């Protein structure tokens, strides 16, 4: 190595350092203009959760944001922009774990000067962001993460909202669907990814089953590692237990791989699978899941979206842009953006609404969305209540559809305020209302 | 009894997959002393290439199983050999002679770059090429079913293992390679074109990784990040067996495969630890792995 | 006399940062705190590297430090930040003293893989601990510092001050340590272990002390990260995080105690701007930066600051 290179590099490095300081200064100077509303959108753009969840969510959000800026959304969102302001988004990759996300969140708020943050698929990220959002007093919507601990661990939230359901609703709904459609099933097994989501889901599901189908026996649960991909051994282990129902909270590529392998191995002919996030595979299974496989979509999202003007518009716009109907992560992202528009439009603010104004408007609100009417009724007006849907996969002549769809109202699947979700199930669902 | 059968069958199926994944890694390390962290990315490249080629073939209305297998082989070998050539000639060549650990970090950088390159080329939508796996069918042992595709993977793994052994032990090139393993400087002095041998070795190792990905593609949904997940697994197998040893990789794969199957069938809770537990236990008693040789201490 | 100059400049830089932090935006203060905490763990990696060992499992101690803070606050009711950090150091030292007996027998890739295995076993245990939130982790309690309770908006600056003081103390100590007989023996072991033995030095003992010290330093980094970010989760022990530490160590080089700090800061800034400017290709940018540094600065970024130009070749 010659002596020239270090000197040259030193100079380059110096100028890079100077340039980045300059960029920092500019970022500070280019403070949000008065005619735009800047929202940070955090979603997985790399790693295993990006394909099935992160990118569809970003695409769903983008379509709604574009339509908002063009003023082409159906009523009541047909006004241009949010509160008359152009909506500008900054997309950030959610990969890297909670510590990095806390850092990126601070960067969004203070360096990028966003006016609101929407995002977070991973529950760990939601749990870490919650207290930071409160500390920084920034209006934040969690659009997908499912942990029931989010508002249990955040006393008196002011700025943090969640426009999706928690995972308890998925699994209580699943148990209710089984009790209604497979009341005679006796041998129940499970397969969950070995991390918090899988463990929580299985715990909530088995607790609910004890209440709703006390005759059924829980015989086995497999816990493969997340992103493992091949499940041959787990499938054999399940086969030797001879289950009738297999509950799985696996998602994305893992869920698809499992279904594919279990079907090819004949396991799904021996037992019915119940996939709490199976909706994202509806248009991808291509008949590789047997008819009668039970699919959930984490609420009235994706193929479970009820027919209304907004959902029809969204379905068409998404399909025109991306060639497939929107899956549930896309609808959930769209819902969070609509919640933002609702809060901004009704905040009564002049110009850019403050976080306080947005929070006050969304708190306890009822707003129309692609999933029907959303009521922010739980966690002191910060958590959405929505019905839970399950249905059966049916594939015929190259067309996949959902049959035997049943819905359970929010009060039927979500714990009322003041209850720990697991306690609520164990006590036999006090205050439940399923009509 | 059924469980014992299941453990044996599953264990060997998993072991043969592990061996496929680990073989390329151990070949490259054995000859070049590079622990290639980008091996998982080559696996992912093979999987993406095979999955998209299969997708194209079935979209054309193809339904011949043997053509599908030919497509997997050709696409995986092509992408493995080409990317192996590019990585070796374009990058590693500039770095030879550096510290072993530095080489590891260099391949880590390659891994980071390839992850995003694959995302740019194939996007993030999962690829699904299930047809060959489903078409191979299955047979039953009582309530247990065995996929015949998995048996085919097992056969392929045996063929590749024997092929590698033959190549290294019985051919002229194998002799040359062993001389390089033994002493790089001396063999160079004896007129061995070490650089050419390195290129060939790296291409073969990379191709093995891509083939492992290619044959796995019909079993899984191919998504970003699958490469990163297999690296540590392959490392664990190779280190357990002894770095650079083909026999070691095979034995390591069988031990890890059987241990894992036993745990899943009897104590599924422990599955997460089992691979690391096996590796740590083996290293405690055999610090260089089962078939690894202690390096001569230089004075 | 050079020694004192290094110490003086370390103190000077720390004071300068402390003063500048009062006028810096909050995000920069937070990023600085994380960078300093990361640098402490990297320092542990560098200590091992000076002895010729590369750890792909330094996340083990990083995670222990973080969880000691989280658990100490949650179950033992400790709120004082210094006591929490101290708790982490004690726990980590005990674990490292046990593991060290085994680890010091290994070299090269086997050391790397075995350290990785232990770190992944801790990861597995934490993932299995449903009561601790499994992979979701849990929040760290609001902490105090020597009776002072940071109010709204003061927590980030207070965390930076604490990190600065701890890092300065550790850097001053390590600066002397590197020049002490054990520190020099480590370098000798890297160059030639057998000759060190011939000189009558127990290489196992030297490596053991070095290993335990590196672990303790790493634990402080983990504790500070937990205090600043307010959340701990098992990812801290996952092997990719440990890989990141090695990455930064190589970026900085092993030439000087200040190198890990500079490298960690550059790494954090490159990453955060890469994530912002190219959310879909930031890993590629990181990879390319790393390759360029290895290609042009084989001794790390620190070699830019040394006058010995010939040394790089």
TrEMBL record, chain A:
Pfam families: Peripla_BP_6. InterPro entries: BCAA_transport (IPR051010), Leu-bd (IPR028081), Peripla_BP_I (IPR028082). It comes from the Bacteria. Keywords: Signal. PANTHER family: ABC TRANSPORTER SUBSTRATE-BINDING PROTEIN (PTHR30483:SF37), LEUCINE-SPECIFIC-BINDING PROTEIN (PTHR30483). Belongs to the leucine-binding protein family. This is ABC transporter substrate-binding protein. It comes from Marinobacter zhanjiangensis.
From TrEMBL, chain B:
Its main location: membrane. It is found in: Cell inner membrane. It is a multi-pass membrane protein. The keyword Transport applies. Belongs to the binding-protein-dependent transport system permease family. LivHM subfamily. InterPro entries: ABC_transp_permease, BCAA_transport_permease. The chain crosses the membrane at residues 12-35, 42-59, 65-88, 100-122, 151-168, 200-224, 230-258, 270-296. This is Amino acid/amide ABC transporter membrane protein 1, HAAT family. The keyword Transmembrane helix applies. It comes from the Bacteria. It holds the Pfam family BPD_transp_2. Keywords: Amino-acid transport, Cell membrane, Membrane, Transmembrane, Transmembrane helix, Transport.
Automatic annotation (TrEMBL), chain C:
It comes from Marinobacter zhanjiangensis. The keyword Transmembrane applies. It is found in: Cell inner membrane. It comes from the Bacteria. PANTHER family: ABC TRANSPORTER ATP-BINDING PROTEIN, HIGH-AFFINITY BRANCHED-CHAIN AMINO ACID TRANSPORT SYSTEM PERMEASE. This is Branched-chain amino acid ABC transporter permease. The chain crosses the membrane at residues 7-23, 29-48, 60-76, 82-102, 109-126, 155-174, 208-230, 245-270, 282-305. Keywords: Cell membrane, Membrane, Transmembrane, Transmembrane helix. The lineage of its organism: Bacteria, Pseudomonadati, Pseudomonadota, Gammaproteobacteria, Pseudomonadales.
